[in-house]
């Protein structure tokens, strides 16, 4: 059961806050929340500033990933615990990212920052200091990462799972409803994609639903778990959440996160697009 | 604490293209009176969820230091759900383009 190796409870984190072999990382797009308060001994990764190349649209290079983890005192044998706001979107994105670079032991705090806060567990403002290490990353594992040409080639073949909201899928909205709607992309979805919003995999408190509920969710929506699967959203973080559910919790083989997602696909010239529910 | 001069409800709309957006915003406050000011104290660690007319999840934001939140929705019926430690509140709203919905949502201790 990968639920045991990929997911930890808030109680587990509370018991391991001072465990030197554990590194707790808060990952988000709005990292000002970290300044207001974070789990004791947690370090901060900014989804864009730390994990995006910045010049080109891509993950940071292996060298930069090694430098980042070394700077924050993370070793190859460190147990990395990821959590964040936004129902762990960016934390699951970072989980996927750590897997792309071959980190052995990375786990997600079930429910993320929300469950922690709803439980009224303590947050602190002190920033921990960790002794720098020499981290060695693996070459990127692209078996869990989909690129645009593959996505286009897999239309009508693989399961394509659009995990955005029904409004984004149908073409009514161009972005999640907490973001401004101006956007350079056209609206709609990749033809043959099934709309299974990421949120259906989560309970209201941000924790994951049970394996039985999750399996019923995807199978019930027409996903053939024996086939290859590509998940996408708008920028690849919500789809990392659903990738986590499929690949890590349900242990479905050959699931890829298309991190280019709709911001890339919806900007491509001449590719097929579908509208409506 | 909210001061007498604070704008009731959601965050300042300066710089937001209100005319083109269907905004639902507001503030989450502890019920009652705080330091003599009605509407109580802002709840800064609440989570506000936006559900569509079918009750499906659409978006979620944490409240800011003033207890405020904002959604850019589409015209139509929506439900706003507030989650805070030990509390849950639901408000049904009707969004329309150009006229923000501005809410005060009180939660009980």
Q: Could you characterize what this model shows?
A:
The complex is a heterodimer of chains A (277) and B (109). With 277 residues, chain A is an alpha/beta fold. Chain A has eleven helices and nine strands. In chain A, strand 6, helix 8 and strand 7 form a beta-alpha-beta unit. Chain B is mostly beta strands. Chain B has one domain: Immunoglobulin-like, CATH 2.60.40. Chain B has no helices and nine strands. In chain B, the strands form three sheets. A four-stranded antiparallel sheet of chain B has the order 5-4-7-8, with no helix packed on it. In chain B, strands 6-1-9 form a three-stranded mixed sheet, with no helix packed on it. The N terminus of chain B is likely disordered. Classes of the chains: A alpha/beta (277), B mainly beta (109).
Task: State the helical fraction of chain A.
Answer: 25-40%
| Number of alpha- plus pi-helical segments of chain A | 11
Mean pLDDT across all amino acids of chain A: 95
Q: Secondary-structure element order of chain A, as H and E?
A: HEHEHEHEHEHHEHEHEHEH
Question: What's the layout of helices and strands?
Answer:
The complex is a heterodimer of chains A (277) and B (109).
Chain A: H1 2-6, E1 7-8, H2 10-15, E2 22-28, H3 32-36, E3 42-46, H4 62-71, E4 79-83, H5 89-100, E5 106-109, H6 112-118, H7 148-153, E6 159-162, H8 166-170, E7 194-195, H9 211-220, E8 229-232, H10 238-249, E9 255-257, H11 261-265
Parallel strand pairs in A: 1-5, 2-3, 2-4, 4-5, 6-7, 6-8, 8-9
Chain B: E1 22-30, E2 33-34, E3 37-38, E4 47-51, E5 57-62, E6 68-73, E7 76-84, E8 87-95, E9 101-107
Parallel strand pairs in B: 1-9
Antiparallel strand pairs in B: 1-6, 2-3, 4-5, 4-7, 7-8
């Amino acid at each position: 059961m990968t639920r045991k190796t990929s997911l930890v409870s808030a109680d587990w984190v509370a018991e391991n806050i001072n465990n030197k072999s554990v590194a707790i990382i808060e990952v988000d797009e709005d990292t000002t929340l970290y300044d207001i308060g974070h789990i004791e001994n947690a370090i901060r990764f900014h989804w864009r500033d730390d994990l995006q190349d910045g010049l080109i649209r891509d993950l940071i290079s292996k060298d930069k990933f090694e430098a980042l983890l070394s700077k924050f005192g993370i070793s190859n044998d460190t147990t990395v615990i990821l959590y964040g706001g936004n129902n762990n979107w960016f934390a699951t994105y970072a989980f996927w990212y750590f897997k792309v670079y071959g980190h052995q032991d990375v786990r997600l705090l079930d429910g993320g920052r929300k469950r922690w806060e709803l439980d009224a567990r303590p947050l602190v403002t002190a920033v921990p200091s960790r002794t720098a290490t020499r981290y060695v990353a693996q070459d990127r594992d692209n078996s869990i990462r989909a690129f645009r040409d593959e996505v286009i080639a897999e239309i009508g073949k693989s399961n394509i799972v659009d995990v955005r909201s029904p409004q984004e899928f149908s073409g009514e909205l161009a972005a999640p409803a907490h973001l401004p709607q101006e956007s350079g992309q056209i609206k709609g979805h990749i033809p043959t994609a099934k709309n299974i919003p990421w949120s259906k995999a989560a309970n209201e408190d941000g924790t994951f639903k049970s394996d039985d509920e999750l399996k019923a969710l995807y199978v019930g929506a027409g996903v053939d778990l024996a086939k290859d699967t590509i998940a996408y959203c708008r920028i690849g973080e919500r789809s990392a959440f659903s990738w986590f559910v499929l690949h890590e919790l349900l242990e479905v083989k050959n699931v890829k996160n298309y991190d280019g997602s709709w911001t890339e696909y919806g900007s491509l010239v001449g590719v097929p697009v579908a509208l409506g529910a | 604490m909210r001061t007498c001069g604070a704008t009731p409800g959601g965050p300042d709309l300066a710089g937001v293209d209100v005319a083109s957006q269907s905004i639902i915003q507001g503030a989450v406050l502890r019920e009652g009176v705080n330091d003599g000011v009605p509407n109580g104290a802002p709840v800064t660690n609440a989570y506000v969820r936006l559900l569509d007319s079918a009750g499906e999840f659409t978006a979620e934001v944490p409240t800011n230091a003033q207890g405020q939140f904002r959604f850019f929705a589409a015209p139509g019926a929506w439900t706003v759900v507030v989650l805070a430690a030990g509390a849950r509140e639901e408000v049904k709203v009707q969004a329309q383009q150009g006229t923000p919905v501005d809410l005060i949502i009180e939660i009980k201790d």
